[in-house]
Amino acid sequence: MTEPTPPTPRKSMEEKFPRALWVRLIIYVAVGHLFAAFIYLLFTLGAQSQ
C-alpha cells in the first residue's frame, strides 16, 4: 500500500484561501487606498487654502 503524496504548497495555499477571499481582499485593499488618497487630497487642499 502506497502512502498518499503530500499536497504541493500552492495547492494547500489555494485550499486555505478560496478565490472569493482573494477577490474580496483585493477589493478591500484597492478601496482602502482610494479612501486614503481622498483623505490625503482633502488635507492637501485644506492646507493650501490657509
What does this structure look like?
76% of the residues lie in helices and 0% in strands. The chain has helices at 9-16, 19-48. The protein is mainly α.
Summarize, please.
This protein has 50 residues and is mostly helical. The chain has 2 helices and no strands.
Mean pLDDT value:
85
Spans of at least 5 consecutive residues with low confidence = none
* Intertermini distance: 79 Å
Q: Treating each run of at least 4 consecutive H or I residues as one helix, how many helices?
A: 2
SSE string, helices as H and strands as E: HH
**Into which percent range does the helicity of residues fall?**
over 70%
Shape: rod-shaped
Give me the secondary-structure category. mainly alpha
Please tell me how large the radius of gyration is. 22 Å
Strand content: under 5%
Main sheet overview: none
Kindly state the number of beta strands.
0
Secondary structure layout plus pairing:
Elements: H1 9-16, H2 19-48
Key attributes of the depicted protein:
rod-shaped; 50 residues; 2 helices; mainly alpha
